[in-house]
Amino acid sequence: MSGRLQRKSVRSSQRSRHSVMVTGDDALSYALRTAYLHYLLQPRPRRQVPAPPPPHVNRISTSSFQDLITDFSRTHRDPKSIRFPKGFLPVLKERTQLVLMGQDRQVEYKDAAVKRTFGSFYGALVEPRYYENTAKSRRPEDLLLIFYTHATKELQKLRQDDSWKQLVDRHVALFVRLMNIIIKEQGWASSNPELTARLSTLEKKLLRHDENLTEDGGSGRGSLSGTVLGPPEPLSYNVNDMPMVKTVSRVFNVPLEVLQQDINKNKSVWTEKAAFQDMKAYMNNLNLNTGNTLRRDDFDLDEAYDAWCKAEKSEVSELILIMGRAHQELLIGSASAPRNRISHMHTASTYDSVHRTQSDLHRQSMYESPSLYNGQSMDQMGTTMEDDDTPYVYIPPDPRIFYRHVVSRCLTADFNNPDVELEPIEIPGSDDPVLLLSKSSFELLEQCGLRWRLPKFSRMTLFLDALRMKYQEGEVDLSTLDAAFMYFDKVVESNWVAWSLADQNAYRQLLTSVHDFILRELYDILQHAYDKKAKPIGQVMWVLDQHIYSNELFTRGNMDDYVQQMKEGLKTRAEQVLEEMYEEEILRNSETLDPLNVVTLVQNVIKLAEKVSKRFREPVLGAVDPMMALVEVVFPKLALKIRDVVEDLIQALRDEGKEMDVEDGFELYRELSEVRRIYLEAFPGSQFPVHLEDIFIEFPLRWLQKIDSMVMGWVEGAVKQDKLMFEWPEGKELGEERHTSSAVDIFRSFNQSIDFLKKLEWQDELQYAKFMTTVSKILGKGIMRYCEELDYWFTHEMSKKTPEQEAAQSQTKQQKWMAMAKEAWSNTQKVEPFQFAPESCVKLNNIEFALEQFDKVETVVGAERLAGIIQKYEPPQRGRDKKTTYVFTVKIMEAEDLKAMDISGYSDPYVVLGDEFHRRLAKTRIVYSNLNPRWEESFDITTEGPLLLVATLWDWDTVGDHDCLGRASLKLDPHAFMDFLPKELWLDLDTQGRLLLRISMEGERDDIQFHFGKAFRTLKRTERDMTRQITDKLSAYIHHCLSRAALKNVLSKGGYGISAVSSLFSRTGFNSGRPQSTQTQAITDADIAAAVSPLTDYFNENFAILNQTLTPSAMTLVMTKLWKEVLVTLEALLVPTLSDKPSQQRPLSRQETEVVFRWLQLMFDFFHAVDETTGEATGVPIEQLKSPKYHELQTLNFFYFESTSDLIRSSERIGNAISAKQQAHRQQMMNNTSSSSNTLSVSGGGGGGGGGGGGGGGGRGVGRSKSVLNKRNLGTMRKVKEEKRREAQAEPNDDMILRILRMRPEAAAYLRDRARQKEKVESIAAMDAIVARSVQQGPGRMGSFQNMGRR
């Protein structure tokens, strides 16, 4: 294959090298000639005449038919152009069925033999597999071959001799004709011109001399009718009989009379012979490569020219062959035709000669050498023409220009005449057919292109260019141009390199022209982008993308200037739109301006932006975005305008003594925030010109004030409306959610407030963090109020007296004492379970629900993140002189060696905390019948300076006034607690005994984590107090069942029962001077278990009542508290409390300790509650049962019977280890003073022994587990609790050893020395804590604290 050739120039014409000016008359003349020639060459109807004796005819053989099919397949350029349409096969099936049924309207299909042949073919056609394959391939050759096969088979059966061969050609020709009829009737001819031409040619080849298309056409046996077709009807030469001439008349708007005159004048020249000579001359010029055809230089590639030349010669030869067969006289005189082409009138003798010549031609094979041209080949025939300058009769001088003129005329005529019906053209991939021209116009253009020898790509290029001109002149719309492009793509091959250079250049110019015009239209469309009803842009972009930019022939130039011009135009138009909207909403209402007007303006701008965004989802031309232009210009200017308007509006209202409504301010902020959001999303690196939060900050501050004034009302209203919390209907069952409406209502209000603030999407994060800090403080107030309400009513209900107690209250003092004595003496009391009311239990459930909900609130708010934001923007500074509030957390731990105020030898103590002004600050619960009570209750005391704290212990009496057990005082001075570590202090009472307090301090601060922590601590304390009140109802019986008296009964195997331990006067116990039991009878496990079985039965009865109303987690909490009470009770049997003084408590014997530890295991198994069948634990989780207190009791057994000297050595060893570890820790801290490590923890298990002789944990570390910040959510609470558990288990501790040594009189001196050592360790730990906090935190939140610490 030859390479690509470089052409020196591009011809603008295919044949003429000279510019041709075409007038309407010139185009009319050649269009009329073509239409008139079409009339001359059309088959004319023939009359029936008697059939002459049949001559001997040589029929086409099977191999010849195969050659015809091969020729049918190879004589076209595009294989797809002769595929039958997609809907063709169903129609063919239907028409074939009509033929075999004899119902077809065509006469020639009613013959019996024809129906038989078609019936056989129909059976093969409907076979599913064949039908599916044919429908998929759409190849006419497959249908022709199968029909030929079945026709041969059926006609062989019909005729036993060789006469069947005469009918095969005719039946196949009938089938070809039927295919052509279907294509024309269905309107597929215009979109499939190649297929219809091929089928027509094949039909003519099969019918050698147009015999009768029935059974045998006059065979030797005689035909059914005995007639044959006679000579054609003579031509009338009347324009009314010429359909295509009528089309020319309509297209050129010329009367038929004028065209008749032209035809009459020129019909001697416009003859079939002239057309025949034109084709011969064209063939001659094609062979000689002269200037009257396309030449090699007209193509860019030699291969393209060779392909075109080959196909062109084949098509021209086909035309010459068809014309020669139809008019034999043209062949006879072709070699010696005169120079002047004079028309020959057809006479009767002409018909005779033609008929004879055609008969002779049918005796030869179609594919024999072209001897029918008197021994001349097609090429040789062309050489007999005189000179190649002989003008054509039917081919215009420049066919391209003439053809384009005719196309333009057709478009104008069809589109301007509403009565003309346009031909629908099916386009692959398109839902609807396209409408471009009428059927008659298509036929005229088809004939012009065929006779003027214009290649298909030339015709379509000229057609598209003419329609392009109509579009630019406004005669057709863009959708029609789009349809023309789709039609072009359907008809023309996409391989444009096979086109001529003239057509390539013409198509390039066409694309460029359309592109430039569409860009101008696009600019105009974008100028209306911001109108209410903008012009659609989809069709324009579709044409550009699908037909211009995607085309390889289009070269896209530099469009930067055009794009910039479009952007500037959009920006200018956007500014105009903003001014129009501003004038309409603001300026026109300046006298009565309202915030609603401002909101409406902003909303209208946003809606416009959204509308534009939907209109232009992608940037136009990939670079111009009307939405971006609008946002870039309008949004900043809008914000500046609105800022001025809002400031003026607020000032005007202030002058009138009014304020803008908060909701109006929020609405304005939301709308302007949306403006800012859109702007910043469009231009991420830009700065919005207005800081909206500074303008609207007064509105959230006013809203917060309103919420603060309403929160107490929310709580009180929710509690008041919660009827179930005060009186539970009898028989009413609790559902899965065991809380009541008050908790739900309160948190619904809380969440609505938080959601409202979050939905504002306040963009100033510092201001937002401060807003949320204020909200947390407000919600904390609500939580505290709710806890107060619940705790008050819970305490009231738990203290409610039974009817028997109310009756006893009216007795005299003497009657009460006598009743108590009689009851004790009778020894018949039965301990009944406490009847816990459902309304009391749901209060505990409400607290649990509040904890869970408040934890969710803390997570939603993001307290830790917001605290970090405030720290980032406003770090605390040293030495700020401001008033500081301090929060002291006072935990009343225990008391020891109290006075016995009751006849039973015990007291019922409780503690009241007050100040120097006798104001009550706090009060503990009552611990019944105990001289060494343990409360472990915490209270918060807020002060702004030093405070004198007075602790008074009272003995509760059923009868008469309460007795004072003693007083002690302590000065709560913030300077003494600057290390922020908890301190445990023993306070000696002014009478007898002492009281242990654990005190810690932290600054009250406006910090979101502090507020959440304070609220959480309030909830947890309320939950703990409620749980303690429940357990207090059961703890008295725990003390009875796990007392020394019960232990004595087990060892003595006496009749230990409920009444014995219940008697107020049965206090015999163990005699401290009495020797240990010498009983020899073994104590069984059953005896030990029997001693605690009343207690477990009592627990089960109470658990059954509680389980009906408490949630599972609350139930577990109560059981865990009871388990702790059991551990404390058993611990009290073994050792006294921790102190620096010897104790009078007697140590237990080995047998007694075995019983105690057996009780411990029995109670452990009871609370764990493992199902014997499934093995699943249904009680308290084992990790909660194995608490630090449980492990301390386990270790107690290891040291309990050690000698005093060994215990002292063990304690010294632990104390030295603690001191060494503390010294190493201090050294490490000094070496890393510049590093920012985690919170330093100075281990002090021994140091926690209790400075001043007591305590069980003071000074154990710098980190404070009881800090408010450590209780800011459930997660931090669990984390601190787990760390505390691990610390208690991991750190060395000699507390239990010291408690054992208290029962050894000989260890009194060591106890005092060890207490002083612990005080020293505590003081060192406090100093280390101050240094650690100074190093780690720098200028902390409490600047004044830091200054004091440094001093």
Write the layout of secondary structure elements.
Blueprint: H1 24-41, E1 46-50, H2 62-74, H3 88-100, H4 112-125, H5 128-137, H6 140-158, H7 165-185, H8 193-206, E2 227-232, H9 243-252, H10 256-266, H11 272-288, H12 302-326, H13 328-332, H14 348-361, H15 378-383, H16 399-416, E3 422-425, E4 434-438, H17 439-451, H18 456-472, H19 478-491, H20 501-526, H21 538-549, H22 560-585, H23 595-615, H24 626-655, H25 662-682, H26 692-696, H27 698-721, H28 741-759, H29 765-798, H30 803-809, H31 813-826, H32 838-861, H33 863-873, E5 885-896, E6 909-914, E7 920-923, E8 934-943, E9 947-955, E10 963-972, E11 983-988, E12 994-1004, H34 1008-1041, H35 1044-1052, H36 1058-1062, H37 1085-1107, H38 1112-1134, H39 1150-1168, H40 1182-1185, H41 1188-1199, H42 1204-1231, H43 1274-1290, H44 1295-1301, H45 1308-1337, H46 1343-1350
Helix pairs in contact: 1-9, 1-16, 1-17, 3-4, 3-7, 4-6, 6-7, 7-8, 9-17, 11-12, 16-17, 16-18, 18-19, 18-20, 19-21, 20-21, 22-23, 22-24, 23-24, 23-25, 24-25, 25-27, 27-28, 27-29, 28-29, 28-32, 29-32, 29-33, 29-34, 32-34, 34-37, 34-38, 35-39, 37-39, 38-39, 42-45
